[in-house]
Amino acid sequence: MPHVLAKLSVQVLRNNVDFFNIATRANSTFWGGVPMGPPDVILGITEAYKRDTDPKKVNLGVGAYRDDAGKPHILPSVRKAEENLFNRHMNHEYAPIAGDATFTNAVAKLALGEDSPALRNKTNCTVQSLSGTGALRLGLEFVTKHYGGVKELWLPNPTWGNHPQICNMISLPHKKYRYYDPKTHGFDLNGACEDITKMPEGSIILLHACAHNPTGVDPKPEEWKQLSQVIKDQKVLPFFDMAYQGFATGNVDNDAFAVRLFEKEGHHIMLAQSFAKNMGLYGERVGALTFLCPDQETAAKMMSQVKIMIRTIYSNPAINGARIVSEILNNPELNQMWLSDVKEMADRIISMRKELRDGIEGRGNPQKWNHITDQIGMFCYTGLKPNQVERLTKEFHIYLTKDGRISVAGISSKNVDYVAEAIHKVTS
Question: Which tens digits make up the pLDDT trace of 79-120?
Fold first, then answer.
């Protein structure tokens, strides 16, 4: 009996101590000043869509490719590359800090082209990154530490929501330049050029290489040439975000036009690449960051500093996704298969744009809808007003962002007529 009482006493004492410790943590002020962060807009749309039980519901908010059945699409070229890698029984040793050279060389060539002067003269500094987001963060943080010009980034208005958030996280000042013209649903060339001429010499301008997110509005080749000249005259550093190479037109060379033009015309560009969309490697987080430098010595110095930054953030990049990309780009047979895969995805997007436009206009809608097919890539700025977006969601169970942006990948042959009918009803 005394032993039982002793055990009970110890247990009561232990429980009291645990209660005291929990109460102490609850009263701690170490984290008391942390505010609740705002919810992610796209995540909120997806969650609302999942809660909806209506059989006709459509999600036009998600920024990921879906096949015509509305399912995630695994590219045949990716499956084949995975099989090849599996059969080699490769190890899981660390990758080099900057990424394996077979990967970095291949992705730089994909972006800059076979005849790139920087690649020929070895004046590029290219490292593997955690997809496009990681490339942007790494590049902009490098700017805050080592850039010799004006540490100020100019973003197109509008732009991808993560661009300003990255700047805010690293305390990099950022401003907007005119880009999208809501009256024409197109590119505001005059406004952009006028704003560029007012940028401080040596500041940085962010440019979407193709398939602008969120508007789907890209400058035409002649407009890119004008932008290049104005940017050069103003001595501004261009930073390209290329998340959709091949996804815009179905041709990787066409979609790299702006990047290659700017290199040809002597710009010392920065470039962020992503392989989430064009290879469907969303969860693998494979990307790259490239600097074009004036000479090999500068490239070597920049590489040394970028590697120090990588070492202190994640030490070494992941190997699996990079191996898949490298296998596809360096294997001629797989590369051709991938180019066909990319074209197939782009062609589906283009066909859905045409069917959506035809469906709206075919119902006698009084508005103009040519911008649906004039725009390009995964996203479309429909021109829908917030009250019309609200009606689409409440009455038709169609989910999209309040600014009227839709992901065309969410449209399929099964729902395009329904979406067209709904848009016609809320805009007539």
Answer: 999 999 999 999 999 999 999 999 999 999 999 999 999 999
Mean pLDDT within 330-334? 97
Q: What is the pLDDT of residues 273-319, one digit of tens each?
A: 999 999 999 999 999 999 999 999 999 999 999 999 999 999 999 99
* Helix extents (H) in 197-319: 221-234, 252-255, 257-264, 296-313
Among residues 160, 224, 338, 369, which one is catalytic? 160
Q: How many CA atoms lie within 13 A of 165 on its CB side?
A: 9
CA separation for the pair 215, 38 (Å, rounded): 23
Contact 397, 52 (CB under 8 A): yes
| Rounded distance between C-alpha atoms, residue 250 and residue 246, angstroms | 5
The Cα–Cα gap between 255 and 186 comes to 18
Q: Active-site residue 347, yes or no? A: no
C-alpha to C-alpha distance for 90 and 113, rounded to whole angstroms: 30
Question: For the chain, what are the domain ranges?
Answer: 41-74+346-427, 94-330
Is 277 known to be catalytic?
yes
Alpha-carbon distance of 243 to 218, in angstroms, equals 14
- Classified as helix, coil or strand, 58 is strand
Catalytic residue, candidates 188, 241, 255, 341: 241
Q: Is the dihedral of CA 87, 93, 99, 100 positive or negative?
A: negative
Catalytic-residue membership of 68: no
Distance between CA atoms of 393 and 396, rounded to whole angstroms?
A: 6
The CATH architecture to which 41-74+346-427 belongs is Alpha-Beta Complex (3.90)
Which residue among 195, 277, 341, 369 is the active-site one?
A: 277
For the domain covering 94-330, report its CATH number. Answer: 3.40.640.10
